[in-house]
Amino acid sequence: MAFKLLVSLLALAVVSNAGTIRKATCADGRTTANAACCVLFPILDDIQENLFDGGECGEEVHESLRLTFHDAIGFSPALTKQGKFGGGGADGSLITFAAIETPFHANGGIDDIVDAQTPFVAKHNISAGDFIQFAGAVGVSNCPGAPRLQFLLGRPDAKQASPDLLVPEPFDSVTKILARFKDAGFSPNEVVALLASHTIAAADHVDETIPGTPFDSTPNIFDSQFFIETQLKGTLFPGTAGNQGEAQSPLGGEIRLQSDADLARDSRTACEWQSFVNNQSKLQNAFKAAMAKLAVTGQDTRKLVDCSDVIPVPPPLAGSAHFPAGLNRRDVEQACRATPFPTLPTDPGPVTSVPPVPPS
Ligand code: HEM
């Protein structure tokens, strides 16, 4: 173990002819811009194999992405101004102080991925804050259509748990959600961009009777279907009715959060929401930029090393933007007043129900 670590640290720093670009060749022959990043390759291999089931965009990837957010959003300058501890942002406190933070109501179900990631943090020489963001970026790279996310290394260990009530709830109003994000440093457009994450997502606990119910019809592909399908008229509850934070969805087997339904229809966010429909490059660029910011929330970036080139290049998008079979433009609840909803084809065939995301 110690030997392995030493070997991976024994990276060769090479200065290019121009003398400007430093390239490091790590012990296993892989290269990266900075020798300090070599420690990440063994972690990358380990999590791809043993956390993400051989490089899938499945449940653990979805949960790991959710965890990047729940850890990072524990950051409130407003609380600090009141003389209270405002949280350390993307500092790994959700793992370091799991006993305090996982029981917070908004963190429902997050204990699964915290439990799954904790042994990896213990096994490798990496802080919990770095690990959470690294696992999120690596996981997203398994999803076709995703951008290659930035990753910076070097977050110190968290010293204190995040305070409660900083993670938004699906039953919060748009005003409350936007205010919470503003406090943490994010604009309404950045909130919409971050919610692209719900294109590779499912809910286990909004309706406990139907675990693994996805937010769009393609939960293993990073596409714009989430932004299309959340704009369609809600007609059913995929499981039971009356769950807190749930709105009616347009498709069997698909669940819609009240917060997503409201953000898609609110005048402050509707046009940005619609702008991602069938615009993969904007979707990728905006999500990448917003995630880069989220991943260093509360951190001093001058002390971090850019290890983005360790993150694998995601596979290209599979499929193209469409209305699900049986639905079309007439089902769109137009909310953006400035521009019409894009014209899209309807998937051929009979109306389908979306299958759940399987547990691994
Ligand atoms: C308004 C803000 C947000 C609210 C209210 C919200 C709420 C939720 C809820 C209730 C779930 C379902 C949890 C469950 O029942 O298992 C969920 C899942 C998820 N969220 Fe969010 N979320 C928000 C923003 C974000 C952001 C910013 C990210 C990442 C950048 C994110 C990533 C995810 C992912 C990937 C899942 C799926 C987890 C899985 O499939 O296991 N969410 N979210």
From TrEMBL:
Textual note on the cofactor: Binds 2 calcium ions per subunit.
Pro residues compositional bias, start-end: 342-360
EC identifiers of the protein: 1.11.1.-
Signal peptide boundaries: 1-18
Cofactors demanded by this protein: Ca(2+)
Record-linked Pfam families: peroxidase (PF00141), Peroxidase_ext (PF11895)
UniProt entry keywords in alphabetical sequence: Calcium, Disulfide bond, Glycoprotein, Heme, Iron, Lignin degradation, Metal-binding, Oxidoreductase, Peroxidase, Signal
Source organism superkingdom: Eukaryota
Region (Disordered): 339-360
Keyword GTP-binding applies: no
Keyword Signal part of the UniProt annotation: yes
Domain Plant heme peroxidase family profile: 110-340
Family statement drawn from the similarity comment of this UniProt entry: Belongs to the peroxidase family. Ligninase subfamily.
Protein name: Peroxidase
Organism: Somion occarium
